[in-house]
Aspartokinase (Roseisalinus antarcticus), 412 residues
Amino acid sequence: MPILVMKFGGTSVATLDRIRRAAKRVGVEVAKGYDVIVIVSAMSGKTNELVGWVGETSPLYDAREYDAVVSSGENVTAGLMALTLQEMDVPARSWQGWQVPLRTNSAHGSARIDEIPPENILRKFGEGMRVAVVAGFQGVSPEGRITTLGRGGSDTTAVAFAAAFDAERCDIYTDVDGVYTTDPRICDKARKLDRIAFEEMLELASLGAKVLQTRSVELAMRYKVRLRVLSSFEEQSDEAGTLVCAEEDIVESNVVAGVAYSRDEAKMTLISVADRPGIAAAIFGPLADAGVNVDMIVQNISEDGRTDMTFSCPVDQVPRAEKAMEDAKAGGEINYHDLVADTGVCKVSVVGIGMRSHAGVAAQMFQALKNENINIKVITTSEIKISVLIDRRYMELAVQALHDSFGLDKAA
Ligand code: ADP
Ligand code: ASP
Ligand code: MG
């Protein structure tokens, strides 16, 4: 029988009632003749609570135990979903990551999936089971320990299952009815897209649009998974939601497809470092070793052989970045006058494959920000995106202004 993957995010399984509603959706697909793999998240808020408990217990926690704790939210919803389906007379069974097994590497907290052998679940389908309910977000390392795939990782579980089982489609059920031109929670003019290209979705996700985890989009692109985002709160037709698909499958599109933001960024400036060969390596090597995810980098013009070096990173990594720099200074690898952390910034980006062939997008972006009197602190660009670092208090305003400026409320 054809296989369908259906993933339900945290808000879609937040209460027993919502689990029942989701199970009904699954029942509809089973009645159509599909064998279904359901991927569930933890109930909304649960993972945050578990992460908080770990931090309170042990600030510099052992990542293996972090995973043991934070993966548990999904175990509860997987069992409850299987029970709910059984109550509806749908033959269902729950699976934790290790039981499948979903094999990952040992990078606890943000593990990568190595393989999902389909035999165990396929055998159960062969014996009459119609729904395999799999706990999202979790796997098992080569050492036999539980791992997790990073926040939002159930999306990646879903796409990986769709690829491993050659599913007809991977449906991501969430609390919005598709992918929008920007987060509908901060811009009422945001417009739902019927289709979006993999490349654009990949950029939007990695620049902060949390509707899909970045790795899930990477996987879908690589394995050509038919990936759809839709609402678990509305009655659905086969055409509902947003299809994430190849560029060739999109007929008309705007130059800019969407606007993304990342709220909690920090801008770090090393004042007066020696401008000599190897200085960047001496700074960014220790930062990488300390696990700091450096994003933007700017080196200023040097005077008298000294220069300022600016980089951005997630705000919660500032203490780690500061420690890495202080240690490198104490060790004599680098010398700087001061390290200034600006922890009140955010990143706003515009994304669109149309930028490859259209000049003037950056100029239009900067003009729109100027019209709102928003100062730009750092700029970076790539072929299909432009990002700026600005004061966090202007984030919503900037997103709305850019959305208006590029006419994203109107279809192409
Ligand atoms: P789930 O718990 O179902 O995985 P998430 O909270 O992870 O849901 O992702 C859905 C949220 O993503 C939406 O509620 C919305 O606020 C946010 N979001 C950000 N950018 C976008 C966008 N461009 N389109 C749709 N949703 C977006
Ligand atoms: N429950 C996990 C999280 O909140 C994984 C997910 O929902 O995708 O990050
Ligand atoms: Mg999510």
Observations:
- The CA atoms of residues 355 and 384 lie 6 Å apart.
- The pocket of adenosine-5'-diphosphate (ligand 1) is lined by residues 9-12, 41, 152, 174-176, 179-180, 182-183, 185, 204, 209-211, 258 (CB under 6 Å).
- The radius of gyration is 23 Å.
- The chain has two domains: 3-175, 259-405.
